[in-house]
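Sample A.
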Amino acid sequence: MQALSGHGVARVLDSKHPNYKEGDFVCGPAVWEEYNLVEEPNLTKIHHTDVQLSYYTGILAYAGFYEICSPKKGEYVFVSSAFGAIGQLVGQFAKLTGCYVVGSAESQEKVF
């Protein structure tokens, strides 16, 4: 089975690149697996701020919905993992845009 690709926030474990060192946080395309090798041109270094890393879920949901997907009013949007942090936001963005939303969840307990 092949791992899913997407965007994410990750911590650098090891790097030979001069711009990245162990412990740095980056944002960019990633394969959803425990460890991932990513090419430097695709990464954005997250500079230390007082903003919690959990806030990046909003940025990822926004970019994925508006910049990559960019559906129009009246279109159908399928949200996998609609109960997750990013999926919940994507579902709300879709409703605000006037789309018809269909979501999936991992288990019946997460359906409301």
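Sample B.
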Amino acid sequence: IVVAVVPANITRVRDSQAIQLVQATGKEAMTLGVLAKADLAHDHRYKQRKHETPYWQLEQRLAGTADDMVPLPNGWVAVKNRDTLVEEEESSGLQESAATEREWFAQEAKIGGEQCGIDALLGKIDGLFTNHIKSTWVPVAIAQLEQESATIAAQIDEL
């Protein structure tokens, strides 16, 4: 599983080093994209550009309609980084930070929860690991157990 982290305020996502590396190695199918620093993706001239929200580009990127995006089968998640210069954010715990982040996405960016925040990122990573384990480790473990069971059954029959 590859987690490609790209700043949300980058000019073109497809030009980021992370995405170029993913494409160069052909790992798109196993990659989850993360748009970090979503709070910095604010377009101050959104009205002049005839958009309804200052986070229009972030919204388009998460919807997959932005022309600078590389489609990833595992999708994209946006996260807001904690501001280490703001004492309240720096000293807050993980639960409090996640709640602050959820509130920010709901109020400022007005983007849905399944693609936004650390909770969404953790959920996606958990799902990817679960699927990976089910498809790789579980079949091998079952085959080994069946083989050992057959060996033990044969030994019991010999007794």
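B remarks: The domain at 2-121 is CATH 3.40.50.300 (Rossmann fold). The mean pLDDT is 89.
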